Amino acid sequence: MFDVHVGKQILIAKDGARCHFGLTKGKDIDVHVNLSLKFVCEFNGGTSDANMATPPPLTYSLSLFLIFSLHRCVFGKYIEGTLRTYENWAFLTRFCFLSEDGKFEFEIEYPLEYAVESLLLYYDSPDQWPAVYKSGKNCTEMLKPLKVENFQFVNLTSLDDLSGCQVVREQNDQAYYRCKEMRSFRSARERWWFIAIANCESQKGLFLDYKIKMTNGLPGDFWHEHFSADEFYILRVDIIFFALNVLLCFFAFLEAVELKARQLLHVTYKLFVTSLILQCVGVLFLVLAYARYGVDGVGWPGIKLTGELLESCSEIIFVLMLLLVAKGYTITRGRLRQGSSVKLTLFMCAYCLAYATLFIYQQQNFDPGEVLYLYESPPGYGIVSLRLIAWVSFGYSVFFTLKHYPEKNSFYLSLLVFFTLWFVAGPMVILLAAYVIPDWIREKTVNAVELSVTFLGHMVFLILTRPSAANDNFPYHVRTTQIGIMENSYNGTIGNNHLDAFGHHPYAPSAPLADETSQTVPNQTPGPPQPYRRTPAEIFTVATSAEMTRMGRLPPLKPAGKNDNSFPHHAPGEPRQLLQE
After folding, report:
1. By the 8 A CB rule, do 184 and 195 touch?
2. What 3-state class would DSSP assign to 42?
3. Which residues touch 20 (CB under 8 Å, ≥6 apart)?
4. Strand-pair category, 13-14 with 27-33
5. Is the pLDDT of residue 278 over 50?
6. 96: helix, coil or strand?
7. Cα-flanking dihedrals φ and ψ of residue 516, to 5°?
8. What is the secondary structure of 260-309 as a DSSP string?
């Protein structure tokens, strides 16, 4: 039997061979491994099984343990496993119970020679679990906070009527205790309860098989039964935000179709749509994982982890898009300077590495004996720092873009004000979750706030870039075809646009009348001279060099008027007389 218990101890057993490890908290643990391997892993309260017919080498077994630990089961109602250790005190699991509605059922078996083992129930008051866990106290001292009158101490013996234990003998005349009982919890509020096992008098340590079921509702209550109290409403909130993200995707696709028809579907908008899709799919995966968890109390841990990864990828791409837009990419320039490109690439690599490290750290190093927020770790604090650096870079870039293109202030000032709040909101939520929000409501509160912040960020950018007549903030005025021509031209220039600096247009105009009444063209019919009219070549056409030479002899145009609102509400080349608004 290959049994892995994550908590105070980690244990592996092998027939006929013994190994010695120092794996947790500086304490040595003896390990056994059976010839027929079966994994029964308890990670944050769930189980994971896999069978192997051939015993791999020991080093390969440890590698498999690391791989399996990357797919932890979600923290929840049902755990089972085998614990064997030379320690006299060991942590099993934790759960956030409701007052009176919380139910704790256990089934424990252990040999009589290890008697008497005791089941310990600590709660989250400062003088209880925090006072004993990782405190360096011995076994006897760790029992002192428990109160027998509160049924926090259960002796697993047939002499204790409340333990539900009886002596059972097998055919080989080996005797062991089998204990099966249920407890309910009554307290002033929701509390975290921590389950441990101990036998301070034992010279052999601890050895037991256990099955533990923890619930917070009546059987069949989909929304409450299997969920820890701190997870209540997470599924409902995820469903709501999934629906909202689907609506955002729908409107973003409509805008993308419009922009593509007008040759204004730039890379930055494509990045925005990609981020939005990843967020939508990530939330969908979380909905599926929590829905399955509501049915069986185990869920789909791999699907849940995938959803969290997709949400992280969505944030990374969205931050990249914001930094590119702040630098004016596809809005005031067609390419970044080499130095800016290198810096941005290195920064985004660091951002991706920080997130990858965070997830690996969470899977490998988070102690289930502590109620920790995802970002309460060195990689988490690194992400907070990078987010603040991204905010400073964002503001710095917007400042210099506006300095060179003041006519874009309508778009960039709106962008700067809102996304300054967006960048700061992430670190603020992390700090509040780590140091202010109580543990028993933290997960559901942070989940709702994080989804809200992400949704608002996508929605505001969608509004700012909508190609609508009422949108004075619309940022794009150079078409994608023009950028392609500039990239292939000899000097990166077409008309008054250059790859490194587009022409100055606050809002791309549509064939304005030039107020150059002094410039006339010859009359072909009797009457007063007619003002000279023409369409700016750099906006609507890609002219050949010969055409540009001929146009060079025509009178120059004044800068486009800021009050023109007709562009980009028509496709390129449509007759002007059909577009009067």
Report:
1. no
2. strand
3. 28, 29, 30, 31
4. parallel
5. yes
6. strand
7. -110, 65
8. HHTT---HHHHHHHHHHHHHHHHHHHHHHHHHHHHHHSS--HHHHHHHHH
Q: Which amino acid is at 34?
A: N
Query: Which residue has 């409340």 as its token pair?
Result: 162
Paired sense of beta strands 37-43 and 2-5, if any: parallel
- State the pTM of this model: 0.69
- For the segment 451-473, the average pLDDT, to the nearest whole number, is 86
Radius of gyration of the chain (CA): 33
Residues 20, 24: Cα–Cα separation, whole Å? 12
- Beta bridge mates, 51: 38
* Separation of CA 77 from chain center: 24
Instruction: Give 501's DSSP letter.
Output: B
| Per-domain residue ranges of the chain | 1-74, 80-227, 233-464, 477-521+530-581
Give the Cα separation of 193 and 216 in Å (integer): 13
The predicted-structure confidence for 42-66, as pLDDT tens digits, reads as follows 333 333 333 333 333 333 333 333 3
CB proximity list for 426: less than 8 A, separation 6 or greater: 384, 387, 453
Residue 82: both structure tokens together: 């085998």
| Furthest C-alpha separation in the chain | 124
As a whole number of angstroms, the distance between CA 130 and CA 125 comes to 7
Residues 415, 418, 420, 424: what is their CA dihedral angle, to the nearest 10 degrees?
-150
* Helices 301-326 & 267-296 angle (0-180, nearest 10): 160
Q: What is the spatial distance between Cα 560 and Cα 515, in angstroms, rounded to a whole number? A: 10
Instruction: Supply the pLDDT for residue 380.
Output: 86
Place of tokens 């400062």: 126
Instruction: Find the angle CA(334)-CA(335)-CA(338) to the nearest 5 degrees.
Output: 165
The alpha carbon dihedral of 427, 428, 429, 435 has a sign of positive
Rounded Cα distance, 382 and 353, in Å: 10
The token pair that represents 413 in the structure block: 């000032």
Main-chain dihedrals φ then ψ at residue 333, nearest 5 degrees: -155, 155
**CATH hierarchy code of domain 233-464:** 1.20.1070
- State the Cα–Cα distance between residues 410 and 241, nearest whole angstrom: 30
Give the 3-state secondary structure of residue 108: strand
